[in-house]
Amino acid sequence: MIKKTSSYPHRSKELPKSAQRLLVTAERLYGQHGLDGVSLRQIGIAADHGNKYAVQHYFGSKLGLIQAVSEMRLPVLETERRRLMSVVHRDRDYSVHRLLGTLLSPLVTELDVQDLQHYARFTLSVMRLDEHLHPFVKSADISPASMEIHGRLNQALSHLPHDVFRRRLSLSCSLFLSAASHLGGKLVLSRKGYPTRAQFFRDTFGASVAVLNAPYPPPADNGLLPADASLPGDSRTGDRQNSRTVKTKRTAR
Fold this sequence. Notes:
By secondary structure, this protein is mainly alpha-helical. It has helices at residues 17-33, 40-46, 54-59, 62-72, 74-91, 96-110, 113-126, 135-138, 144-156, 162-182, 197-213, 234-252. Helix content is 64%, strand content 0%.
């Protein structure tokens, strides 16, 4: 259980090497075991830190540590995203695939294989947090390129309701991160499948773009369910909607 507390006092670049080692270790262990699967003491021991309260000293709390880990790789990623966005502005190409590529491609061009795997696993764990605990929003001041890409994608997909856009973007990024987290582990390159990392990530990226570009509303006969099918909970939602419709009609009369 993660409790909301005050933010940690320092950005990672201002921290001593021993504290930066805590961040790298926390990223790896949180990615492997989940945010609730490892204690602050275990992270300190794994980082070979003699002070068992080292995490609290540098980051204040578990949430402060998670925030710091989330921001650890932002400088290098943001630098590349700013460069790519300058090219996007030059070309005036604000298509979904171009913007999403600008957001995701720095992960595979700027991080080595192991760092990418640790980053992907950690970020997937963080994405499960409640929105008010999410570190991404708190990093807005040091990630202007990412924030601009998010806003441009929202404009490019303005036909989607806001909640649908948020969910699709989360699913799109989760798909890409999940693929990155498996490469080298469950997924091995081979001539029968993906012969190169470049081909693997191009294919995965195509699937991520497809998540955002899928038709909305989805066609009733898209193959998942019969057109007249309903699921548990649909009737109650429908009843509430019908009730509001009836009340509106009565008021209009």
